[in-house]
Backbone:
């Protein structure tokens, strides 16, 4: 039984890796970068700290991601008007366009199959995956709320 579980986990990991490579090839973004763009679109204007909490990554990691996105003119960072220590992040027009054109953060097939399940089945899957993550001691690891692994840079 344990071998079958490990094989299933490897298959999931492989599918995630393949989708991440497709994402990088199609829009030049890593999974964490796309995750950040989606969250910025939803939360903007958003502070770096709130963005980091929203996508479950460390603030230093998010700062690096934002630097790469800003160098591509996909986001802008400005000092807060009330608190000059805070930095607000927003999508640029180019960033908003890219998010609209980017592939789905979940594999289309997986998303479709998951959406066809009954709510109790989705709840059971979620509970099982959360338990597996805890069993693998994955809780302290920085993770994005997307079904993708980072390829190359963050």
Residues:
């Amino acid at each position: 039984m344990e071998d079958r579980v490990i094989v299933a986990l490897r298959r999931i990991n492989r599918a995630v890796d393949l989708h991440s490579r497709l994402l990088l090839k199609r829009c030049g973004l890593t999974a964490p970068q796309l995750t950040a763009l989606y969250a910025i679109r939803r939360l903007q204007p958003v502070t770096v700290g709130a963005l980091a909490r929203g996508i479950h990554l460390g603030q230093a990691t998010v700062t690096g991601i934002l630097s790469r996105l800003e160098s591509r003119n996909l986001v802008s960072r400005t000092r807060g008007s009330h608190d000059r220590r805070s930095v607000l992040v927003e999508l640029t027009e180019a960033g908003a366009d890219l998010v609209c054109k980017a592939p789905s953060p979940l594999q289309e097939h997986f998303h479709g199959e998951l959406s066809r399940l009954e709510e109790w089945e989705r709840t059971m899957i979620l509970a099982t995956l959360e338990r597996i993550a805890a069993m693998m001691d994955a809780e302290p690891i920085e993770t994005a709320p997307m079904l993708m692994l980072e390829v190359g840079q963050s």
